Amino acid sequence: MTPRARRLLFFASAPVLGIVVAAGLFGLPRFGHSDAQYGQVLNAVSVPERHITDVVTAVNFDYRSVDTMGEEFIFFAAVAGVVLLLGAQADESPGHVEDAATGRWVPPTSDAVRVLGLALVGPTVLFALYVIAHGHLTPGGGFQGGVVLATAVLLVYLAGEHQHLHNLYPDRAIEGLEAGGAAGYVVLGVAGLALSGSFLANWAPLGQVGHLNSAGIVPLINVAVGAEVAAGFVLLLSAFLHQTLILRRRRPTPDEPVDPLERSA
Amino acid sequence: MSVLAYGVAAWLLLIGLWGVVTSRNLVHQVICVSVVQASTYVLLVAIGYRVGAVAPVFSGIRVGTIAVDPVVQALCLTDVVVGTTVTALLLALVVQWHKRTGSLDPDQLNERD
Amino acid sequence: MNVLIAVALILIGTAGTLVVVIQDPLRQALTVSLFGILLGILFFAVQAPDVALSEIVVGAVALPLMILLALAKVRGGTR
Prior knowledge:
A: 265 residues
């Protein structure tokens, strides 16, 4: 279909879509006057029933933890797909670090960036661990803290070079951490099945409201998810960096022209 | 206010779809898909809002205070992180496609001989 | 608070339109980062701190970085 025909088809069908969407949106309650009952019930019972003060984390990891397990495995599969797609293919081999965009050698980072980057790594890791550990008390949790932890690793790359990142975090350990996080979630669920009769039941002692070791297995799930998300994002960034900076095509295969512009000759 | 909140969500959906349909660059197309995802976040969070309510976190706040709906926030939270990862997967596909064929034109996706 | 929500919504609509209209992916990467931060502000104004935390970290750090790395690889091959 030519671009022009596609554009005409869109202009013909977009008003229909717009009308259907608007009709659906008009049936919603007024903005600011939500009448959803399930949320109201959870707000009222989360603290006395589960001793957990962050109700969003309670929904994610206690009341609807099977759904979060599914989301976590979507994340796992997407990271596996990226690592598979961007790993060394049959006709590629590692070269020296080079800026592929202009062919120039990557200049060394300035001292200011290096100092600031390294100085921020410690506080960022601490903040990430705080967010993960306090997910059931204040806003936070495994997903947010995991991404902040991956940002700390990214600071190492910004402050130094790709090789430093690769030396400091070998791929095997990161992959093991990610798989361990994903498996940890399932192990906690199976433990619930063994100890309380239902998958992902909250089997650990509930403790006191507001304490760090309250809410049963929710802090443990937070740790598992935080480890998995952090390791997954580090793998993603590593795969992209590796592909961009290091891997070079070894030689053109015989049935492909060297110049891409001559492809359709 | 309702019209503004839900209207922005619908507008983001339509403009993102327009970007996907009329794009001339595969990376631009992937970013427009992430705009469409953002429209669902806005809609979900707008559904749960309650005027004059607090956030659904009760550390230091008396239980029973009117709070916004936590269920839609839980949906949004995981959606944001996982959606970015799927965008990363799409970008990896684009990078590999470009390495094989040398072009980023969506119209040439079918002409691979 | 209502004024903040209304302003954030209008800015988000504008930023979303800009993200689509800008054709150069390099400029689009920075606009998408701004779009993510505006979404974070909206989520804070609508009393959703968990979602705001997620969106700010992901939208301001991870997403533009991946777009820029993909672009660096892709632009290198079009010479």
